[in-house]
Amino acid sequence: MIPFSTNAHYRINTINGLGKEALPFTMGPMPVQEFLDEFFPSSQLLDHGYTPLSQQPLERFEQTIQCTTEVPAYCKFAHAMSALNLDLSFVDVSSRGDITNCKSMKYDIKPDICVYPSTIETPDRCDVSKAEIMIEFKWSRGDDPFSTSSSSSLFIITSSQRARDTMGQITAYASAQLGAQWRTHAYQILIIKNYARLLRWDHEGVTVTEPIFYRESPALIDFLQRYNVAPLAMRGHDETVFRVTSCQLMATARQKLGLPSNTQIFQITMKDADGLDVTYLVPAPVATGLSPIGRNTRGFSAYDTEGDRVVFLKDTWRVVLPDIMPEGEVYKCLNEKRVRHVAMCLASGDVLGGLNAHTTQTGRFKDAPWVRHTGAVFITHVHYRLALNIVATPITSFVSSRQVIEVVRDALIAHQGAYEECDILHQDLSVGNIMVHENKGVLIDWDFAKLAHDILLIRSRSL
Prior knowledge:
27% of the residues lie in helices and 22% in strands. It contains eleven helices and 19 strands. It has a seven-stranded mixed sheet with strand order 1-7-6-5-4-3-2, sandwiched between helices. A seven-stranded antiparallel sheet has the order 8-9-10-11-12-14-13.
């Protein structure tokens, strides 16, 4: 790999693998005005200071478009944006990738421009844990992974290596930002010389707009003005998580969790089985490089402030299907029946819950008249959290072959007990879901579990 290369072709194949995985879950080309009205409705922004402007100073983009190559356009565009007096800072980070938050990723995260809130000390390089929007520039239409033709039946372009490179880049940026922040969704801007596209990523897919010829259309500026005044939740921030500011509480959590003294600590509150609030303190999330589309499961060792103990907290996006039980309900049955080699569930539930639950939005538009279908099945995901009473280690950390055999035996005992006592089948018995705790096996990750009766019923109907 060439460090900080502007040519994505020299990046390792993992980046293009991410893009290939995301391509079928692309929803577009969404009309830009519909994109703005759906995700940043002006009726909800007027009280926050949004004022639609009848005329936009679009000539400010002339110097950007006149650049003969891509790189000089970064600072020209950032300068044009600074004149809008937004509470956002546009920083050219094209040669300064993230060196802090993406250490577990095998490639550089280095968009061309990062947009930061003006309320923080603006980083001089890419910092995916603080970025609001990432902007990627390309100076040839051949780099655009999406079609500009209104007559084409296909929206995604896969025949061009350059287009595949671009898709890999923007997918990697979404993966890093959603991984390193507490977010429900994230926005990007892709600029192809004289036109731009807006992108909205969530854990169901990515919604992409039609081209915005920003020298003639005010839509790009309108998007940024709406984003500028939008509430944090509308921008994609998870407002159920709070940064801990108490020095004493931070010190206690770091000590209990064995963390360095500079680790950021966050507070998450959940409901236990009795409906009472329980508070867990966890470190900042880490970007792992996994696809942004899917369950995006993140696990934390968490400090239980009431119980003064270390527990395991799982933050995930569960699939919403009629025959798949929420994991907390599975654990409730397993725990009530005292199924062996299964952890005790302390708290679980959809984040916020009810009509306010964090829910993916991409699939809502699958039947829109503008959609060019890819053949992918879009499945709604809901943000979900679960706390368990133990923090176990992977079976791959075994100390002897005897321990491996005993731990696998314990997992099979759990699987048998779930079926015999609760009529539940795990459906994902694998190395990653068999853990070790105090030299005993523990079977985890019951989020794909189903009632055996339901499985047999489905199979009988297919015969």
